[in-house]
Amino acid sequence: PEMVRYFMTVREAADLVLTAASHADREARDPQAGDQRAAVYVLKMGQPVRIRDLAERMIRLAGFEPGEDIDVVVTGARPGERLNEILFARDEPMVNLEGIDGVMAAKPIFADRAQLSSWLDRLAAAVATDDRAAADAVFGEAIPDFLVRHEAAGEAARLSHAG
Length: 163
Hints:
Layout: E1 4-5, H1 10-28, E2 40-43, E3 49-50, H2 51-61, E4 94-95, E5 103-106, H3 113-128, H4 132-142, H5 146-162
Antiparallel strand pairs: 1-3, 2-5, 4-5
């Protein structure tokens, strides 16, 4: 009942795709952009909405009363789902999109070839020895917020099995 999500219309989603593609195309042709290019574009959607509130509003808009005419069934979080949606990783640097209102962007965190090779070698060794902790350590270094997401997924799975 406390799960919160952001929403956008189909038109807003389509506009976001076109805006991001156009912006990315301009940046790809800009020799000065280098590694400063944005990679993740997100619509500024305002405040997130509690899923339960949305369900109750939709029931009322249909002319019914939640809990009386139509029950709101709480199914719980699926494995890996969060209560609160996170649009950007904590460590992702934000990019100012000049001339584009209503869209936020973050630039990717790049690793050089040597770092990628090291991670892949360590990951292959962890897989070969079935060492989950070593694999998680590699993912924790390579993926911003991986350990936070991994712990949250484990907690959600634990809670769904308990209830």
